[in-house]
Amino acid sequence: MTFEEAKGLLKLSREARWSYPSSQGGDMVRQDTELSRWTDRLVPKRESFTTAIEVLVRNGFEDEAVETAANMWRLWMIARDMAGGRKFLDTVLGVTKKKSSRNRALALYGNGLFMFHQRKLEESQKYNQEALEIAEKINDREALALANLGLSRVAYEQGNYVEARSLAAKALELTRGLDPSLGQAPLFMDALSTRMVADYDTAADLFSKSVELNRKIGDKGMVTAELQNLGLVEAHQGNYESAEKHFKEAETMGSGGDPYGAAMVQLQKAIVAYGRRDQDQSRQLLASSKTLLEKAGIDPGPDDKFEIEWLEQQLRR
What's the pLDDT at 98? Predict the structure, then answer.
């Protein structure tokens, strides 16, 4: 690749427009068909940006290389290519000067996110902490919000729910006045962590706000997920009819369209059956949920594992 071609890709990276990645790390369900076509065209050609930043670094344009990385790492997230995304960002983060800049902070956050999805929590924490330190130096609210969000994810997976809640709330506050979609993931983590410390009244309010926000920004996948979470919180408050209503709405939106989703639908039905005092049906549905997970080789996340164990405990009483 020539230097002029690399500069052309830098220019293209500056024109990038994204549907902000959801709390799951991928591009949200896109309503903008023009944006969808733009993204779909670039994802298969993403490795050209790796070559571009190598060329920019060789020619002494380190700042521009970091900028390209910060602008384009989401292509690998959309492709669900975590290893490739790390390689792309390491191409620039490992060889350029550790200069405090917004672009470097955003690239570090991206690498932390790839590490998170590879279950490398200590490495993810390291990259997010470095991103936070830079963001604090330059006082960039978006970079600060993302770094705190990344650290919140790690704390949550490590079982430090109080810390995760504090970091998520901080990230959410930093998004005030920015693009509403930027608050999506912090709000999700705030609600999820609050649920895990059994503050169900607050969690219900946060999940309701999350449903509203995701409807507003058009992320159907997260609307579905948050309806399920809201239903679970309602169940813990003893509001089983309300819980069932939320579960049914989520199911009509396609919540059971994959093995994990199908298992969670069975779990939710088991919880509703328990609320109706039909323990035999609840046990059968719970067993079905666990069988689906086992057959698919899926280890449920901390929140769903908690719900399975909670229901098992109730049924043993």
Answer: 84
Alpha helices, H only, the chain: 3-14, 33-42, 47-58, 62-72, 74-78, 82-93, 102-117, 121-138, 141-157, 161-174, 184-196, 200-217, 220-236, 240-252, 259-275, 279-296, 302-316
Determine the Cα–Cα distance for residues 265 and 271; give it in Å rounded to an integer: 10
Distance of CA 252 to the CA centre of its chain: 23
Q: Which amino acid appears at position 297 of this protein? A: G
Output the six-digit token pair for 44: 């298969």
- Check residue 243 and give its pLDDT: 96
Query: Would 293 be classed as within a structural domain?
Result: no
Count CB-CB contacts under 10 A for residue 268.
26
Q: What is the C-alpha separation between 183 and 173, in angstroms, rounded?
A: 8
Length of the chain: 317
Q: Exposed (0-12), middle (13-18) or buried (19+): which is 51, by Cβ within 10 Å?
A: middle
User: CA gyration radius for the chain?
Assistant: 21
**Residue 48's domain spans which residues?**
3-228
Is residue 248 assigned to a domain? Answer: no
Q: Is the pTM of this model over 0.85?
A: yes
Query: Per the structure, how many domains does the chain have?
Result: 1
pLDDT under 50 in the chain at which residues?
A: 23, 29-32
Q: Is the sign of the CA dihedral 194, 197, 202, 204 positive or negative?
A: positive
